[in-house]
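Appendix B, example 12.
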Amino acid sequence: MDDVLASGESRIDELIFSSRFHAQKSSAICRCTEIIKNGLNGNVPDTMEGLIALPGVGEKTAACVLRYGFGKRSVIVDVHISRVAFRIGFSDSPKPCDVKKALERIVPEDRWDDMDIAFITLGRELCRPSNPSCDECPVGKLCGFVGSSSKR
């Protein structure tokens, strides 16, 4: 934490420059680090509520910290997971919060890690936002998007 705070926003920004929204992220990283060090006695929150109370931390980031930082099961919803879940009918809505609730209901908790990886891979490689490769999709028979002109 001391190294992050001593580096400052401009150095953090340089380090994460290739990520989207790097300026906002570097600012949030520094503010979160300061809050954790000085306001939380160096203890990173280990609950969804505690994490999203930090500046710049949303549900996706909090879910990642819970899973990869604390080893807790959590459903992570990114744009790929949201798109795939919506298109194959796991969720009636493409909104991440709705997708998360639907996946928590449908997918057994011990398969959440596998589901994330599978949906991300499918979303990146075949179920792209435009020009999806529906004819190559292994779950095409489940999908309401195949052969449809909808924006699903």
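The longest helix spans residues 22-39. The chain is about 55% helix and 0% strand.
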